[in-house]
Amino acid sequence: MLSNVLSYQDYRAEFGFDADSNLLHGRVIGINAVVDFYGKDVDELKREFKTSIEAYVDYCRKLGVKPEKTWTGKLTLRPTEEQRRRYSVAAAIAHKSLNAWMVDILDRESLQAEGAAIAAE
Predict the structure, then answer these.
(1) Residue 10 DSSP code
(2) Residue 55: inside a domain
(3) Could you tell me if 12 and 45 lie in one domain?
C-alpha cells in the first residue's frame, strides 16, 4: 500500500516530491508550528524528520511551551439535512447522543487510517 505519511514518536508528517527543489519535502501535521524538512532520498528525509522533531521539541522546551497543538475541543460539521437525519437515527439506534456517536465514528476511522499509514512505512 502506498503512503505519504511518516511517524516518529507521537508525531506524523506528510511528504511528497517538490519539483522546484528536486527534493522530497515533508511537513509535520497536527501541531501549531510549521515544521518542514527535506531530503534527497527517503533515508535522508526520515533522518531530517527526526532531527526536525527533536529541534522543535527542544525549541518549545526553551520557550516553556507545550510542543503539542492546542485544541479548542470544537469541530464544526456541515452535513446536509438528509445526512443530519441519518446521523441522528444511527446515533439513536446506538443509544448514544449524536456527539458521542460522531466521536466514536471519527475515532475509529482516524485510528484505522493512522494504522494503515504506519503499516505502509
Answers:
(1) T
(2) yes
(3) yes
Give the three cell numbers for residue 60: 518549545
Residue 17 vs residues 22, 38, 119, 120: alpha-carbon distances, Å: 7, 9, 21, 18
**Global confidence as pTM:** 0.61
Encode pLDDT of 31-70 as tens digits: 878 999 999 999 999 999 999 999 999 999 999 988 876 4
Q: Does residue 3 contact residue 16 with C-beta atoms inside 8 Å?
A: no
Q: How many domains does the chain have?
A: 2
- Three cell numbers written together for 9: 514518536
Query: How far is Cα 91 from Cα 53, in angstroms, rounded to an integer?
Result: 39
At 105 the pLDDT is 93
